[in-house]
Design goal:
By secondary structure, the protein is mainly β. The chain has one domain. It has one helix and nine strands, in the order αβββββββββ.
Length: 113
């Protein structure tokens, strides 16, 4: 399993609160299979939970954008909501092409404009 750097970061909770939403998941990226195909980035990434999400898994299917999110095998979010991934160490949004194994991330679902 990947070793994941940790650091306390309050940003995801602040963003979720401002959008009247909740943080969907926090953890360490353990797989990332995004690959270019026909002008799109297709793939999945999986995050293993930490802290309050320990023992759980979050899987995301992507086609350029994060399209659907699965918590422990159950579909919990899909477009048109904006599924945002935040790097908790760099304190920045992570695009799907920037995802790397061992990144410590938070996943939020924000309302579409």
């Amino acid at each position: 399993m990947a070793s994941c750097e940790t650091r306390s970061c309050q940003l995801p909770g602040g963003i979720a609160t401002a959008a009247n939403r909740a943080v969907l998941f926090e953890g360490c990226v353990i797989t990332s299979t995004g690959r270019p195909q026909g002008g799109f980035t297709l793939g999945t990434f999986e995050v293993m939970g930490r802290d309050g999400f320990a023992g759980q898994a979050f899987l995301v299917d992507l086609k350029n954008e994060t399209m659907v999110g699965w918590l422990n095998g159950k579909l919990i979010v899909t477009i048109p909501e904006i599924i945002a991934v935040l790097n908790l160490i760099a304190v920045a949004v992570v695009t799907n092409s920037q995802l790397r194994v061992s990144q410590n991330v938070a996943i939020l679902a924000l309302p579409a404009p």
